[in-house]
Each structure stands twice: as structure tokens, then as C-alpha cells.
């Protein structure tokens, strides 16, 4: 079949529709705009029929990544993405994506946008009173707030009441990270000392340490705002639970503060504690970032990336330290512009998510970039999707933060020494990957641009070139200290025990 | 953690064993020799404890491939391979491997080799009589025969009784493909005209066309030899079913032909039909193989590969035409030395299988090679495992038979023309991959050797170099005609309809 | 073990708690008041520990019925009932109850009552407008309204706005069936002609004919009020969906009608149509009920039952015609006082439900009765639970409406004649049960009172005695015409085709 | 529908078959002779179509019992029984039966009888040698031997080699229990002291104490004969495993003892130990059986039942002590004539099994009886199936051994006293059922004969009448001591701890 043949095809006005056409039409009716998948007998016809109706088809290299991409489209656009796989093994490969979607945000068959519901008026009143009486209040903004498009109302609440806020990983950008009320740089302190915390679509899961001491005050009061009744009261019993659409409920709260105006005193001791902690933490990060020793450490890398990060880009990230530290340094300015491994901690989602974001970006806002920050181990799960990126010429800059391993690795000399004592299956630590892997070749193999960088200067230059050239995707393979640790923390439970 | 630290570790003589050590010890007790996986909290300790007990650990890049590798080890060694994954997403990624193992051959928990059982004497007598009276007999040797180590007894039966035989894909090598009684080159004709067929551990599944007309005589009599009662009588009711260990049952058959000697007349019309058909088919293949036009076609490629194929190598293969046509040209001389996508038709198994075979080969028979023949689409499912291959320096030669697509693709000029009419998501046929992809870069990225070949001469040379140099794995990216079709078939139902 | 021993037991103040005590304490903490089950090793201790904490334990005869009883308690009391079974077969027997609970209303682990949420104000406004402009409005009250305790607000809406309403089977009693605005007697007509229908916690499932023509106007507008977003838009796309607590949303609607008062004109043509249809249907039923021929028909039976039905009793029912026709004649005056086979159409739930209702009634309101109306086939699923009823001396009057079969049966003479032609396994129609079965003996076997009734007079007398005597449960076995059909319907699709 | 109508029906010769007819025809082709179920829309037609083809249809009262009946037919006849249920709740109710069949013996879709397979000759030789050299040999005959129809070969082995044997519960009757070599009366001693044990289709599950000390010698050698490879080596690693058809393998063993004749010396110390233990155990049982105190104990009851037990009857049993003690006293003389709760310990199987056995008996051997021995609690699970028994007039004598509870209960006076202290839900021990329940009324309700017996004389008389009258089924409700314990055991671990 040639591209020309594609343009012809059967005339839909004549005769009846094929099964593939019926499926395609039904997807179109449900306002599906993107399909990801891998064709094979007998689903190729469905992909063709779908394209004919104007739905974009993205052919992927593994059903796993296809399903991750489809699930991300649901989150980004509010309309379902679709994953096309053959039955049997194809379907089983796709299960990872389905499980991840389930743990995060997305479902197929969600034909109608659900109607909006609001919290009970009296509960809203109680919540507002709690907040008025808080000594050390804190708002936590989760991805539920992003999904509910609650950015305007929550920002109004933050600014009108002068409250400190903290985003969860995928809640970043609902209010810009550089907003003066964002206390992300004092995250642990803020959680530990707050006496009243409002959760906007954020779950008290492992990322938020389950809401329990010693990471929180034993008597902290949670006000939980969520659309999902099952999430309310998980792990910790909230003082007030506001069940409803997060945007609508925030507006109900704002009405309370309109009726009886209130703002939290900006000169309080609480703000002083938070600002001082932020200052010292930022100084410590900057200190780490400015270290001149080579190989680079995480902070140096992310400092330089942040310097050049386009304000409106999507940030996609996965990995262990790469994702954790990157999150603290890289700033999001727009809602629903960060995608990461999420609640389920799934490795292998990054490239699928980046592809989805890039396809959406290309459609909506030509010129917008996707910055995909991968640990080297994380990149391995779906690195072959780089071919997909090149095939569709997607505006993605891939950063592989490469420490030669999972959590940590070995430098090339230690690796070679080690092999003298036996076969790698016998002597290599299970966390190690091959030192000095040239992941950038995976990009050049398909016509994209690749960079192998070992110094801050090389990093700066490669970023500049990658971001300047919109004609090709690129991959920057950034070599860091294989045993690089995160900066010391002043809470003992923050530092992971060495493996 | 460094390799040195590994050598020290905790002293097992002191104090009690950790949970990880208990698991490792239990695997050792069950005679597990290989573990494949991806570490993460909290399973890293298990990998370490396992290595300490002398079990080889192979760290993979995606749980999918790890699980495929573990399943292959079970088939190759008769002892279970183990797959180590973290719970949640890791486990879900591994499901594909588990499903595939289930459809083929391998189970965990198989502590004891099961005792051998034999067929009922009277049924063996009936089977022998049927065979004696056959006008056009045929033996089909399946992977069950390989798994049962029945190679010696079946070969004796073939030679003593002078019977024609046909291997199934993974039954290839139980008797060498170049044995004079092998009628693989007349496969369709042999199936279509045989009047008595003995199935040795072969299933009448889609690969054998379910045993039904018009691919078979309506009154063909099947003699089914299998260890698995559930397989007996699937799709077609056998004339005789011999339930038992395939090797033991074959010996029972041989006893019958020892008591009353018999051999099938070598000058029969049946042998004449088969030999003539083989001759004409081989001539047709040779004709295709000798075509000088470029890009090459499948037959030319496989002809040159076969020329240099080491007699004792493992052959691993997956893809559509790549696997189908490759199977007819590439010869196996040893049992249990071919692994392919098998009954379940799973794409993505190739590199995991190749890694498993190479790890086993390195252990048992240094110098032995694994030739892994991948379609370009198939390679994409787990191409990142090339890093694993390089990390463990495995004796693998990867051939990517590259037609720029699934089933077929576009040449680079047509591709570029096509893009003038719209975005690739809109205009590219769903079967297309990026033309001129340099998959060999995925190998050079990790220090292996890569070749991009477009002519028979380049193919010959790259094969020679790859096979000569045992110090590094290599990948040969073989460009073929993107619209290359298989040779014409004289049964209409053999030719797949165009997509 | 004797009852005395029970009073002693281990002293909970001394030493630590056993596993059984921990489980019991945890159930108590979750405000569980009732446990149903069957003991066995090793769960007997749990039942004992539970009783010690004041939770009532009801030992049942089959796990199926135990689980049905536990699920009903959840609906009746708003607190979970618990089902105690041994693992293995006991658990499997309980699956029916779990599936049924899932399809209806009940879940374990529902620790906290969920917070109340309200519908979006603008959607409420739209709904109110729709209703104001309706020509032929109808409210349908489902079991969701009962579960939400919305009886006062919905009744206020009905009476203030003078709207006709229709209860679903388990929605009966939210407003008394004998309320003048109830149009149950003109159900088919009301559904068929309404132009705006408000669904209060009612699903458009098979009981409501999926909301589709010809049972409804093609352009009928549905206003759906539900707590469950997943239920919204099933089968039919609602004109407005009000997501929220049904009671809270009804109050929101009332606020609209307080702001701008409105009532539907009582002298409208719509009310005239409905009242005339009700009158003619009631006349037809009364005609059937007054037939003097013997055996009795369904209408005669239910007419006499209704005559004596205590106003505050629970009505439990299952069967085919018995449940369907009984529902139209037997009136409920209180919310949450009717339990039947429900959405899932499960046979076998009746006695479990009746036992649960009776245990709750005994606790809350001594003197209250449970009337359990069973078809003879339905009674067979769990008839042995009569022993449970007698053991706990529960205030249940069981009516078995006996037509010797499923849907229909044979009279005793035809049965005997038929047996002359062969064994019953060969000649008896599969729908037949044994004619003249004395189900009342199943009650007298355990000390309860049994009645075998064949005439209206016997029925009246037995009902009078059963309801007068609170000291013992009773069972009235009511013989009806084995081929009794329901009254003719004037919609052709209402009449089931003969088997 | 009347019986007459049934005889007419549609003419199968005209026109095409309905869906129901296709299903029925397919069951007939697979040699299905019995269907059990409950009809409803839309499966009634299937039952009718099935009857037309001569398959017997038995309408049951609960899908649970229907499925148990269908599974028993598979065991009794070697051809599958079929269970007909409606989808949804009917299917869920049937799960118990499916799980139980799975744990025991029966599968649907078993179209072809599997071919027979034999054990490896060398393994048979080793097994025979082990047996020749045994000091204290023992054969254990399981239900696998019964299912394999191995009665003749195993009996020949027992008698020719003069070996002691022990049946498992459902292995009883493969060789008659009263055979002089049966050491059932010294079961615990035989297991404890044997040095070589041959297992014929018996599993080392909880019934056989998992094959472990202290119930067995630590160095006992097991020879395992089984058709199922998965069963081999469970719990204990056998010295020899003979995989194959149990009858065929036993014949292979006999061939060994034909070649080199051998018999175990009848005057050995081992036989002496066993005979003495049997004598003392039988004396203890007889002592218990002859006790004159009332209420009766278990041994008295079973002694009198055994006195009148027809030699060729089926014995079905379930319960706790009722099944355990009954098994030791009631003797089976024919293979496949005992059905009980089996490996899975399922309560509720009894009446379904009895109905299946009776339907088969009526077909094969008019005059043959089914004696169904139920504990009172066990009877409650499916007591309503008594109506089924009466409807089909099945030759069943039901014995309910009634101790007013599960394991034990209270006498009527203690029960009444106890109720003075509170409601039964609060004060009744969870193991108690209603004292003096007249279960026999459940039989008289449907026209069968019922007996309430409290003395040995009443028991004898009622048994005599029940067995003499073939025209009606009967139920004998046998009151025993509510706190009746089993006889003291001289192994401490045999006596269950009091609840």
C-alpha cells in the first residue's frame, strides 16, 4: 500500500460501512482525537478508517508505550485517547498502561463530561472557619485540581487570603511554581508544622507520607476537597471533607471569604519560618549546583536546565533521583504541563507521555516544546520510541541524566576492574548499567540530534542548540557522578538508607 | 555499592538469614541457575543474595523482556528460570512473558522432574499397524519432542523406517533440517496429501492449519503422541492417541518395528511426489535468492545468512515475513536451538529469548553463537535490550531485516513526498516506520559493532566479521525492498491478501 | 459448650486479646451491630467474641442466605452487616450475596458516612425550568432516594408542586403508595406519555425498560438526580444531570420553587389521563380479585393480603408473577420497608432479607412484622432458613403463593396422568414442581404455625391468626390456579410470550 | 404448558434447528445423559429440547445443589453431567459446585475418554522391589483408583501378595470394606508404623495428614501411583512415582509379581500388630454401640444402620462427626458407591450427590437404594431438595443424625432456660440449632415418609420400613446426645480440642 492509495480508499457514501468504519465513526462521535497503537492483522483497517475521519494515528513500537500515551491524552485534553492493539499478546502488553491510567486519572467510555457537583453549604462554612482560625495554614494542590481546571479559583484563594501553598508533583503549575506564595522549597518544614491543611485534589499517599507523624503534626487538621468520595478519609480522617467538583467547591470557599473577608497575616511567624527555610534550602541547592567538580551532580545539571527551560513547555519526567530532584528545581508555570510516574511509581511511562504531550502541543500550539527528563534506567524501558518521535518529527528534547545505573552505578574504570574477577552476571551489582552508554546514538540512529555532555558548558550549549532548532528532536545524554547523592536533609527520615 | 563491596557482604555463618537470603536459598534448592529482572526497592537484596549463591543475575531493561528470557531458560535447560520484578507496574509489565510461557512450555514451581509414563501397549500396536499400512505417511516433529529430548529415538524411527518428516518451527533441529528425509521444502504438499500423520509433540494449531481441509486430506488419520492429555483430540479427533513421554512412546513404537521389521519403500510414488516438489520449490527459492536487483529481497538475504550460519548456533527469530521466510531457509542442526514467537505469535520476545540462549551458551559451550533474526518492527518492542547484550558481552549477532514497516513500508523518497501532503499522524500509512532507520546505531551506542548493509557483498562481509570476532556483539541492519513479497505460492490460500 | 459457659469466657481485662477478639473489636468500632453466618473451624471464636461485645449473631443454614441477610442490613440501617463464613466452600457459597449487594447498595469497609454534596446551582436552575415548562411531568422515585433518606424533601416537592409520582419497586414507601399523587396504577401509561421525567435515585435499567421507546416518548426529557456519577447517562442521555446527595439536591430544587413559586395545574389534561387510567386499571384488578372460581388467582390472593397488611410492616418479596403482581397490589407506607429481588433479579434472597428485616425490627420496634411473599419456586432456594426464623423466633409471616411451578405448573390430576407415560425426569415439563406440596410443614417442623389455604375464607382466617399471634412465626401456603396468568395488558409488549 | 403439549412440540425433521436444539444435540453427541438445573428465561427451551433427545432433566431447587449433582454424575458414570442455570445470580450460585468438582474429579468439555498411559517399566521394577523388601507394607486405595475402575487389578494384587490395605473415604468399596485384608479398623496404627506405602490414586492431603510425622514414620517410603503428574510429589517426595492410568499401572506391578512370584508373609509381626489393634478398636466401638443410655450416641446409631445397610446401596454422607464416625462403621462393598464432602470439605453437597446417585441407580439397577447420612447442620444447606427427591420419587433414605447443632448443641431444657437470660441472637452459642427440630416434616410435606426416632428400637423399625417400601422416599430424624463425643483415641492429636 502506498501513501497515494491511502488518499483514495473506498467511498463512504456508497454502500454500507465496514466494521472498521463503524468503530472509527463511533470514536469520532465520542470526540476522540488521538489514537496510539501498533497495527497487525486484523486491526490495520481500524487505524486507516480512523485516520480518514481526521483522528490522528500515532504508530508506536510497544503496546506498553502506546497505552501510556493514550492515557496521558485523556489527562491533557479531557477527551479519551484510544489505544489500538491486537488481541492476545498486544493486549497483555497494554495492561501496564491501563493499570497506570486507573491509578491516576483516565478511563475509556467516559462519553459525557460528568455534571458538576458542589459541597454541602454547612460543610463549606465549617471549612472556612477552620481556615480562619488556623495558626499555620497550608494549601496542598494536587493533580485533581489540575484535572478539574481549578487554577483560577485556587489562585484567587491563595492571593486573596495570602496563604502559603505547596503543589504535588503533578499539581505543579496549577499556580506557577515561582509564585511568591509557593513554599515548595520548604516542603518538609511546611508539612511538618502546619496546623490546618487544605488538600485540593491531592491524596495522602506515599508521596505525601500518608499524612502521618512524624512528617506531620499529630493533631494537624485536614480539609479535604475532592470529587471522589472513595478518596475522602483514606489514611487520615479529615476534619472536614468537601465532596464536589474542585473548582466549584473552591468558589464556594471564596464566597465565604467574600461574605466575611479574611486574609492570613503576611507578617506572621509562620510565614517567617517558611521564608527562612526556603532561603536556606535554596542556598544549599545553589551551593550544590555551583560545584565545579566533574562528573556533574544532579543539582548542577538541573540548575542549567532550569536556566533555559521555556516557560510554556511540557515537562515529563521519570526515574528515581532524576525525577525527585528534578521536580524540586525545574519550574512549571502552566497547569497540566507536568506528567510524571505518578501515584503508581511506574517506570517506562516517560516516552509515551512525552509523545502524547508533543502530539497535543503540535496541534494546539505550534512552537511549544516537551522536555522529557529521564533517568538512564527509566529511558531503557521504552527508548525505542525515539524512532516514533523521529518518525512524527515531534518537538521533544530528551534529557537522559546518566549515572550508569539504577539509583547509582559504577564509573568505567571500576567496571573494567571488576570484570577481571568474573563474568558480569556473577560480579556486577544488580543496580549497574553499562558505563558510558551513548544513549544519544539512539536518537541519531533515526535522524535526530544527539549530544554527549560531560561539563556544564557542553550542557548549556547542547540545550541552546536543541531548543533553538525546531526541525528535529534531540537527545542530550548527560553524564553525572555515578555515585551522586542528593543533598543532605535535616530530617533523618528523608535520607534513604544506602542499598 | 562497588563490586568490591559485593565480594564482602554479610557473613552467612553468623546470625540468621534475611528474607532475601531465604528466597535465594530456596531458588538454589530448586536448582535455579538463572535470574532475569530489574531491581528496585525492595528487591535489590534478593538479586544480591542470589548472586552470592552462584545463580547468575541478568539485569534487563524492561520486565517484559526479563520475563521472556526467564521463560526461555526453562525450555532450554529444563530447570526454571526466574524473573525478578518489583510489585505493581513491574509485575504488570511481566504479564506478557507469563502469558507467553503459559502458551508454550514453561512453568515455575516445577520442583521435581515428573516421572516418565508410557502409552498403553495395545494403542502402540494399533499405531504401528496404521503406519505400516499407510500409503503416504508423514511424521511431524513439534517442540514437545524437543522438550522431551526425544531426538535419538525419533531419528532412529525415521531412518529405520525410512519415513518422511516435517518439523514445526520450534521442532526444527530435533533431526537436522538437512537430513535427507526432511521434507520441509515440500511442506504444503506433504500436509495436503499425507494419509497417515504422526504428531510428535506438535499441536494442530494455526501453524498447522488446525489439521483441516483443504490443507489436509479429509480422511487423513492422525496418530498423536503427547505428554499432555488436554492436547489430545484438540481440533481433530486422532485415529490413535498415545499418551506418554514422547521419547518413551517413540521407543515403544520402535519395539514394534523391531519385533516385526518394516520400512516404508524409498521408491514409492509418495517419495517421488515429495522429492519433485522439494526440487521445484528449492529451485524457486534459489531463483529468488539470486536476483541481483537492489534493494535485496528476503530470499537473497536469508540465502547469504544460511551460507555462513554456524552449525551449532542458536537461532532466535520473530517478525512477520522475516520469521516465516527465514524459517524455510535457515537450517537448524541441533535440537532446542531454535526459539521463535511460537504458538501465541507474540512480538517482542526475540531479544529476551536471545539473551537467555546466550547466557546458557556462554555457560555450557563457550564459542557458541546466538543468531537473532528480527523484523524491524519486531526489533522495536525490546531494542533497548541491546544495552543488556553489551553489558554482559553476550555472543549474539542481531540481524534486523529492515523493510521500513510492519509487513511492508515506504522507501525514503515516497516517504518524503508523502509528508508534503500533511502531518505524518494524518497521512502516513499505519504500517510504516521511518525509512532508512539506522538500527545499528543502537548497537554502537553501547560499544558493540554495527553494520548498515544494502548489497549482498556488504551482507557477506558483515556476517564474516561478526562471526569471526567473539569479543563483541554485533547488529547488522539489512535494508530490503520495502514492498518485498514472498515467492508466489501454488495454493491460493497461502498468499495473504494485501492489506 | 453450654450457654452458661458462654457467660464466663476469658476476662478481657486480663492479658492480651486473641485474634478473634481483635476482629470483633474492630467490627464494634465500625459500628457493626449484626453478624450473620455459619460457624466452623476456625471462625466459631469470632462469632463468640462478637456476641460478647453486644453484636447480635444470627446463625444461618447456608452461606448464600447469610450473605443476603448481611447485605440487607446495610440498606436498612446504613451501617454494614457482616457475614461470617469459613474459607473455601463457605466463601464460594457467599458469592451470590456479594454479587447481589454489589448490584444493589451495600459495601463492607464503609467506615465513614460520606460527606454530603450538592448539585451545581446553574444545573438545578435548568432542571427547575424544565419542570416548570413540562406539559406532562412525572417523578420517579427509586431506592437511591430511600437510601438517601430523602422522603421528607421529595414528599414536600410532590405536594408543593402537585406532581404525579411513580415509585420503583424498592422506592415504594418513600412516599406512601396510597398518596393521592401516586400514579402507580397507571404506570405504563405514565411512562409512555410523560414529556419530562425526574429520576430520584432510580436507574433506567430493565425494570424501567431502559428509558427507550416504545415504552417512552422518543423525545422525553430526563432530569437525573443521583449520588453516583457512573449512573448518570446510562442508556439515555439526560437533559440535566444533578450529581449530589439526593436529599440535598431535592432541597436545592425546592429552593428554586420557593424563590419563584410554581405548581403543576391539578386540573390539567395529563392528570385527567392518569386518573382515568388508574381508575380503569383498578377496576380491572378488582374484577380479577373478586373472581370466585377456585383455585384462586394472584389478584384475589393479594387483594386479601392487602386488606390485612399492617401499615408499618416490612414487605419482602421474590418470585416471578408473585413479585410482579404483588408489587402492584401490596402497599408500602414507610420508606426502606420493601426489599425484593432488585436490579439483579436474584432468586433466593427472600428469606435472608426477611430475617435481616425481622432482626432489625425486633431491635427497633417490637411489634413490627415482616411479611415475606414468596413464589413457591423462590421459596425453595432457601426454605431451610425457616429453622433460623423459628430458632430466633422472628416476627415473620411467610406467604408462599403456590402454583406448583416456575411461572406455572400442573394440577395434581394432570401430574398423575402424565406420570403414566414415563419417568418424571423424562416427561415432566422443566417448569413443574410437585403439585400440592405442603410447604407449611417446613414451618411446623420447627414449631411455627402452618396453614394450607385453598379459599379466600381460609386465607382471611389464616392471615388474621398469623398477624394476631406475636409468639410464633407462621407460613401460609396459598394454593392458586397453576396456570394463572396476569391480567390482560393493553400494551402488547407487556404480555410475556408463553413458554 | 401441559405434559401432552410436550409430546407434540415442533417436528425436528422440518426446517432448521433452534439454538436450544443445537445445544441439546451437541450434549447428546457428547454422550451426556443427565442434566440438572433450574429453568428460567431463556433456558427453559434448552431443558425441553434436551428431554426430547432422551436426556433426563432433573429440576432442582437451588443452583448450588444442581451443580453438585451434575458433578457427581461425572464421577459415577464417567460421562459428564450438565448443569443448566440462568446467567447472573444462577451462575454465581453454581460456583460452589464447580469449585467442588474441580477439587475432586469432574470437568465439562471432556469429550473423549483420554487414552490410557502406563508407567515407565524401570520405575515399575523399582516399585516392586521396594514392596518385596518392605517390612511393614501398606496399600492406600483412593478415589482415583475408583475413578480408574482399577478394582479388579488392585484386588488381585492385595490377594496374590497378601497385603494389608486401607481405603480413603471415597476409595471405600474398591475392595469391599469387609475384606479380611482391610485394616481400616486400625487406620491410625497402620499409617503410623508402615515402612512402605503404595498410594493408588490417593492424595497426601489433610485427610491423610499430609504424609508427615508424627502420623507417619519419618523415613516411610511412598510409592505413588497416579494419572495426574501434578499430584505426584505433593507434600512428600515419593520414593517412586508411577505416572499412568491406575489400572494399567497396577497390571504392570502384577506382571512383576508374576515374573518373580512374591507374597508378604501372613504370619508376620506386622499383621499381628494390625490384627490386634483392629480387634481392640472394634471391641471399643462395639462397647460404645451397645450403650443403652438415651439419647443415643453416634456408635449406637451407626451400628444399627450398618445392620440393615443393603450390600449394593450407594452411601452419601456429609457432616462433621456424622461423616467421620459414620465412615468407620458403615461398610461399602462396591466401588464408586460412596460420595462424601471430599477433599474440599464442602458442606451442602449431600442431597445433590444423593439425587445424582439415585437417578443413575434408577436407570441402571432398579431396586438399588441411596442411603444419605446427614448431620443436622449439613442437611440445612440444601434440605429443600427433599421436594426434588419426592417429585422424581427417588429411592433415597435420608438419615439426619441430629445433635441440635454444629459439632454439638443443647438439649431442649437447657435451650429454654438459656432464653430466659436474653434474646437468642445474644445468648445462644453460635453452634446451636433449634433443639427437637422435626426435620422429618420436610419429607412428609412432599408426600414422603418421615420418622422421628429416639431409641434403638425406633431406629431399627423405621429403617426396616424405609428399606422395605420402594414406593416412597423417607427421612429418619435420629435424635442423639447433643454433647455426644467420639470415642477416646489413643493418639493425643486425634482428639479435637473443645470449641
UniProtKB/TrEMBL annotation, chains A, B, C, D:
Entry keyword set: Lyase, Magnesium, Metal-binding, Thiamine pyrophosphate
Domain of life assignment: Eukaryota
UniProt GO BP: carboxylic acid catabolic process
Enzyme class at the top of the EC tree: lyase
EC number: 4.1.2.63
Domain Thiamine pyrophosphate enzyme N-terminal TPP-binding: 17-105
Domain Thiamine pyrophosphate enzyme central stretches: 127-253
Enzymatic reactions: 2-hydroxyoctadecanoyl-CoA = heptadecanal + formyl-CoA; an (R)-2-hydroxy-long-chain-fatty acyl-CoA = a long-chain fatty aldehyde + formyl-CoA; a 2-hydroxy-3-methyl fatty acyl-CoA = a 2-methyl-branched fatty aldehyde + formyl-CoA
Protein name, as recorded: 2-hydroxyacyl-CoA lyase
Originating organism: Sus scrofa
Amino acid at each position: 500500500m502506498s501513501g497515494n492509495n491511502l488518499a483514495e480508499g473506498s467511498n463512504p457514501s456508497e454502500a454500507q460501512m465496514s466494521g472498521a468504519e463503524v468503530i472509527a465513526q463511533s470514536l469520532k462521535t465520542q470526540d476522540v482525537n488521538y489514537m496510539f497503537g501498533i497495527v497487525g492483522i486484523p486491526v490495520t483497517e481500524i487505524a486507516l478508517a480512523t485516520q480518514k475521519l481526521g483522528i490522528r494515528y500515532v504508530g508506536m513500537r510497544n503496546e506498553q508505550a502506546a497505552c501510556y500515551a493514550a492515557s496521558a491524552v485523556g489527562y491533557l485534553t479531557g477527551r479519551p485517547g484510544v489505544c489500538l492493539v491486537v488481541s492476545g499478546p498486544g493486549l497483555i502488553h497494554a495492561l501496564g498502561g491501563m493499570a497506570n491510567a486507573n491509578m491516576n486519572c483516565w478511563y475509556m467510555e467516559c462519553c459525557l463530561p460528568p455534571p458538576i457537583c458542589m459541597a454541602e453549604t454547612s460543610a463549606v462554612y465549617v471549612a472556612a472557619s477552620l481556615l480562619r482560625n488556623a495558626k499555620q495554614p497550608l494549601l496542598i494542590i494536587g493533580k485533581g485540581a489540575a484535572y478539574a481546571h481549578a487554577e483560577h479559583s485556587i489562585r484567587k484563594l491563595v492571593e486573596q487570603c495570602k496563604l502559603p501553598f505547596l503543589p504535588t508533583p503533578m499539581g505543579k503549575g496549577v499556580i506557577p511554581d515561582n509564585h511568591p506564595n509557593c513554599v515548595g522549597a520548604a516542603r518538609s518544614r511546611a508539612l511538618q508544622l502546619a496546623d490546618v491543611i487544605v488538600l485540593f485534589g491531592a491524596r495522602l499517599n506515599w508521596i505525601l507520607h500518608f499524612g502521618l507523624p512524624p512528617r506531620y503534626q499529630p493533631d494537624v487538621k485536614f480539609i479535604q476537597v475532592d470529587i471522589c468520595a472513595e478518596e475522602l478519609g483514606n489514611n487520615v480522617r479529615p476534619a472536614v471533607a468537601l465532596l464536589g467538583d474542585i473548582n466549584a467547591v473552591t468558589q464556594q470557599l471564596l464566597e465565604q471569604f467574600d461574605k466575611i473577608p479574611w486574609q492570613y497575616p503576611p507578617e506572621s511567624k509562620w510565614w517567617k519560618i517558611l521564608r527562612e527555610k526556603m532561603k536556606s534550602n535554596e542556598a544549599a541547592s545553589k551551593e550544590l549546583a555551583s560545584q565545579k567538580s566533574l562528573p556533574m551532580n544532579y543539582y548542577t545539571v538541573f540548575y542549567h536546565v532550569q536556566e533555559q527551560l521555556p516557560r510554556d513547555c511540557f515537562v515529563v519526567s521519570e526515574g528515581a533521583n532524576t525525577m525527585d530532584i528534578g521536580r524540586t528545581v525545574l519550574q512549571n508555570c502552566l497547569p497540566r504541563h507536568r506528567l510524571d510516574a505518578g501515584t503508581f511509581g511506574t517506570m517506562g511511562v516517560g516516552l509515551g507521555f512525552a509523545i502524547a504531550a508533543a502530539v497535543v502541543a503540535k496541534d494546539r500550539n505550534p512552537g511549544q516544546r516537551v522536555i522529557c527528563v529521564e533517568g538512564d534506567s527509566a529511558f531503557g524501558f521504552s527508548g525505542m520510541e525515539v524512532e516514533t518521535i523521529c518518525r512524527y518529527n515531534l518537538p521533544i528534547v530528551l534529557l537522559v541524566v546518566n549515572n550508569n545505573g539504577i539509583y547509582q552505578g559504577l564509573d568505567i574504570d571500576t567496571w573494567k576492574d571488576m570484570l577481571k574477577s568474573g563474568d558480569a552476571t556473577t560480579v556486577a551489582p544488580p543496580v549497574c548499567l553499562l558505563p558510558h552508554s551513548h544513549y544519544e546514538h539512539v536518537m541519531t540512529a533515526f535522524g535526530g540530534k544527539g549530544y554527549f555532555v560531560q561539563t556544564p558548558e557542553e550542557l548549556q550549549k547542547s540545550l541552546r542548540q536543541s531548543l533553538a532548532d525546531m526541525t528535529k528532536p534531540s537527545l542530550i545524554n548527560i553524564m553525572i557522578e555515578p555515585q551522586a547523592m542528593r543533598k543532605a536533609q535535616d530530617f533523618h527520615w528523608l535520607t534513604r538508607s544506602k542499598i
